[in-house]
Write a structure and sequence with these properties.
The structure holds 2 protein chains of 2 kinds. Chain A is mostly helical. Chain A is built from 10 helices and no strands. Chain A starts with 8 loop residues before the first helix and ends in a 5-residue tail after the last helix. In chain B, a hairpin with a 6-residue loop joins strand 8 and strand 9 (210-215). Helices cover 35% and strands 24% of the residues of chain B. By secondary structure, chain B is an alpha/beta fold. The longest helix of chain B has 17 residues, at 162-178. The chains are: A mainly alpha, B alpha/beta. The A-B interface holds A 159-160, 162-163, 165-169, 173, 177-178, 181, 256, 258-261 and B 54, 57-59, 77-79, 81, 83, 85, 87-90, 98-99, 101, 126, 128-129, 142, 146, 152.
Chain lengths: 261, 249
Amino acid sequence: MTATGIPDLKPQSNILRSAGWSATSLICLIAVWWVAALVIDSRNLPAPDQVFASFTDALASGELVTHVSITLARVLVSFVLAMVIGSAIGIFMGRSEKLNSFFDGWLVLALNLPALVTIILCYIWFGLTEVAAVTAVAINKIPNVSVTVREGARAISTDLMEMAQAYQFGKWKTFRHVVLPQLNPFIAAAARSGLALVWKIVLVVELLGRSDGVGFQLHLFFQLFDVAGLLAYAIAFIMVVQLIELLVLQPWERSANRWRR
Amino acid sequence: MTAVSINIKAKRYPGGAGGKSGHLALSDTRFEVNQNEFVCVLGPSGCGKTTLLNLIAGIDKSYDGEITLSAAVSRSLAYVFQTPRLLPWRTAAQNVELAIDGGASSSSLSMDLLAAVGIEKFAANYPGELSLGMQRRVSLARAFARRPSLMLMDEPFVSLDPDAARELRRLLKQMLVQQPATIIFVTHDHREAVQLADRIVVMSGAPAKVVKQVRVLMSDNQRNEVASVDEFIEKNLTEPRRAGQGAST
C-alpha cells in the first residue's frame, strides 16, 4: 500500500477498468459479426439486428419464455440430482480406500462414456419420458462431481476430525460443521463447471426426445434454416445461465469463503 | 477416589510394508489419577505423550493394555490439543458453542466462557483473525464449555511467549477453582509442571515408560517463585534414575 491514500480507490477503479474492458471486447465482437454479416450477405449468417428482432418477436409471443423456463427446470432438477448423488459418491470414495479402489474403474468408465450413448440408452430403456431425459443428464454429470469432491474428501484434516471425535460431535454435527466446510470449495468448483455442462447436455436430450424446451426449438430452427431464431435462443439461454452464475453461485462461494483472510 | 487408571503394556505404530514390529511408542505405562487431581505428565519431546492422551481420549483404540475411566469421569471429557484445532470457518463464539451439548442457553454460556478467558470482544471473529494466544484462549473456553470432569491437555501453552503462557496458566488455575476437574496435562517444561501439578508423572524417552512419580506439595506463592520452583526441580526431577523418591499413588 502506498502512502497516497490510493488503496481505497484502487479496487474500485480496477473493477471499473475490467468492466470497461469486457464491454469494449463485447462491442468489438458484435462489430466483427456485423461486418462479416454485411460482407457475406446470406440468410445463413444474419446480422445482430436481425437476431435481435427475432429475439424480441419470440419474447413478445411468449414462446421464448415458455421454452427457456422448461429447459431451465430440466437443468435445475438434473443439476441438483447430479450434485447430491455425485458428492455423496465422492465423499464415500474419498474417505474409504477400499471403496475407492473398488469403484475407481467404474468411475473411469463413466467419465469416458459419451453423453450421447447415455442419452440414447436412457430413452431406449425408460422411453421418451421426462424421467429418462433428466436421468440421462444427471448420469452424465455425476462422475465429474464425484471426481472433484473425492479430492476434497481426501484432503480432510485429520486434526479436526480427531477434535470432533474427542468433543463427541456425532455424525450429523461433524458432517455439517467439520466436513462440509472443507468440501465447500470443491463442491463449488463442481457446481460451476457442472452448470455449464448440464445445460449443454439438456439441449441434446431435448433435441433427441422431447417436444418442448430450447433444444426442441433449436431442432425446429435447424429444419427451417432459421439461423436468426437459433442464435436468438442461444443468446437468451447464455444470458440466463450467466445470471445464475452471478446471482447464485458466486455469492454462495463468497459467503462460504468469508472466513478466509 | 480413582478417576483414571492407565495400564498400557505396549502401543505400537505399524511399521512399513512387511516390517513386523513397527515403531514402539509406549511400553509399560502404568499410573492412576484421582478425582479432581491435577497430574502433569513430564517427558522429553516426542516420547509418546500425545499418543498417551489419544489413547485415554479414545481417539486411538489400538493398543495392548487397558485404560479405565470411572463413570463420573467418562461422562464428559475435554481435550485441549497442542495446536488450538479450532474450526476456521466458525467464529470464536460458534467454536465454543459447538462443544456444548445443545440447549437454548448455549450461546449465553459460550459468551460467559469467552468473557472468562478475556476475549469476549472477539467472539464474532474467525480464528484466522486471532493471534495464537487468543486462539489458545478460545480452545480453553471450548474445553470448559463441556463442563468436563476429565480434561486432557497436550502442551496447550507451548509456543507462546513466557508472559502469555504464565497468564494462561493463571487463567487455567482460576477456572479450575470455579469448575473443578480431573486434569492430565502433558508438558516437557519442568517449571510448568511444578507450577501446575499436584503430582508429576515423569516419563523417559522413546519408547516411553513411567520413570517415577513426584507429589508436589507447594503453596501457590511458592509455585510463583522461580527460586523455589527451581529448587524443587533440582531436588526431585533432575535425577531420573532415583525412582521412588517422594513417589505416591
